[in-house]
Automatic annotation (TrEMBL):
Residues 101-233 form the AAA+ ATPase domain. Gene3D superfamilies: P-loop containing nucleotide triphosphate hydrolases. InterPro entries: 26S_Proteasome_ATPase, AAA+_ATPase, ATPase_AAA_core, P-loop_NTPase. It comes from Paraburkholderia caribensis. Pfam families: AAA. SMART domains: AAA. It comes from the Bacteria. One of its GO terms (molecular function) is ATP binding. CDD domains: RecA-like_protease. The lineage of its organism: Bacteria, Pseudomonadati, Pseudomonadota, Betaproteobacteria, Burkholderiales. Keywords: ATP-binding, Nucleotide-binding. Belongs to the AAA ATPase family. This is ATP-binding protein.
Length: 355
């Protein structure tokens, strides 16, 4: 951790000797790494001293790595995302023409819709370091320290050409409820505003909030770019299901059916349901049990599947929902559930069999 090359080589060589008897390939790889010349240890990135809260001594911000989940957005969100990236990439040109705005982006919307994820993707796309501030942890119990914490965050990122992400920005507005000291709230809001104003124009600030209406208009004005998130629509849900079921063409029909059944769920819910179902399947070395997954969605028991048999009533309700409410053809329902069309029709009343 202290970038002490000699010690690392010394310990590494000892490890090599010990490994050699049990894992020759591992020992060879380790030796190869140790033998490499002129490779600087990346100590600077790891030992970077982050500003801390005076009382708790906890860091006020964290460095996050590139996200490993792709971001799925609706058309409006995608075009706003791309416009922001384009403006950030060609910022100098916009400045030269006098049409640049501060690169500050506000993400608002309900939990679990991908706000934090999107911010991570922006940093990754632009190849910038991604500093994440959880504002609720910055709010100190010591009077006066909150503003001080916020100031040290902005001082820290100044000139770093990074992406500063202020998560849960509404935590500041909530101080209004928790404390009677309105003076301090005002001071904190002003410190955020001053912080944003103090950064170089090409700095990128992204903020996220679940309660857009709680934010001060003076803060809103600092963010010329805005993306608002909602519960995902059908197309988006379908893309999310397909991805989280493993990008497997075998689950193409399933993704469409599950998207019909999951109105109101957000991206995080869909991820959890899909992964839970895949884990269950993995233990049994089987494909995902669509009866179980679909029925648990109908019951809105996201993530908790009754493994084993699905009750007859639930099967009936599932098939009725798809056929009657969503007007899905019986052949399609059969493909989704991995049964024959003949197995589907008995569940539907004779009058509805023609679908
Ligand atoms: N639109 C999406 N595209 C891809 N994955 C998503 C999307 N929405 C949610 N997810 C999945 O859910 C996880 C949680 O999303 P994220 O943390 O970005 O939500 P959030 O909007 O920041 O929620 P909160 O307001 O609670 O912080 C993501 O890491 C991702 O795996
Ligand atoms: Mg978040």
């Amino acid at each position: 951790m202290a970038a002490d090359y000699d010690r690392i080589r010394q310990v590494g060589r000892r490890l090599c000797t010990e490994l050699a008897t049990q894992d020759t390939e591992g020992a060879r790889l380790l030796k190869q790494v140790l033998g490499r010349k002129g490779v600087p240890l990346r100590a600077a990135g790891y030992s970077e001293a982050l500003p801390v809260d005076n009382k708790s001594r906890l860091p006020l911000l964290e460095v996050h790595e590139t996200p490993d989940v792709p971001i799925f957005l609706d058309e409006l969100g995608r075009s706003a995302f791309e416009a922001f990236l384009a403006d950030a990439t060609h910022f100098d040109k916009l400045v030269a023409q006098g049409i640049a705005s501060r690169l500050a982006l506000m993400l608002s919307g309900p939990p679990g819709t991908g706000k934090t994820l999107l911010a991570g993707h922006i940093a990754a796309h632009l190849g910038r370091k991604f500093y994440v501030v959880r504002l609720d942890s910055v709010i100190s119990s010591l009077l006066g320290d909150t503003a001080k914490n916020i100031r040290s965050i902005f001082d820290f990122v100044a000139g770093k050409n990074a992406v500063l992400f202020l998560d849960e920005l509404d935590a500041i507005a909530k101080m209004r409820d928790d404390r009677n000291e309105l003076g301090e709230l005002k001071r904190v809001v002003n410190t955020v505003i001053q912080g944003i104003d103090s950064l170089e124009p090409s700095a990128i600030v992204i903020a996220a909030t679940n309660h857009a209406q709680m934010l001060d208009t003076a803060i809103w004005r600092r963010f010329p770019y805005k993306i608002s998130f909602g519960a995902p629509e059908y197309d988006l849900r379908q893309a999310l299901w397909f991805h989280f079921l493993g990008d497997d063409p075998a689950y193409e029909v399933a993704s469409r059916m599950l998207a019909l059944l999951s109105e109101g769920l957000n991206g995080a819910d869909i991820q959890q349901c899909a992964l839970a179902a895949r884990r269950l399947a993995a233990h049994k070395d089987e494909h995902v049990d669509m009866w179980g997954l679909a029925c648990s969605l109908m019951h809105r028991q996201a993530g908790s599947f009754a493994s084993g048999t699905v009750a007859l009533n639930d099967k009936r309700r599932l098939i009725e929902t798809l056929a009657q409410e969503h007007r899905v053809a019986q052949a399609e329902i059969a493909r989704f559930l991995g049964v024959t069309r003949q197995a589907i029709s008995p569940y539907l009343k004779p009058a509805d069999n023609g679908n």
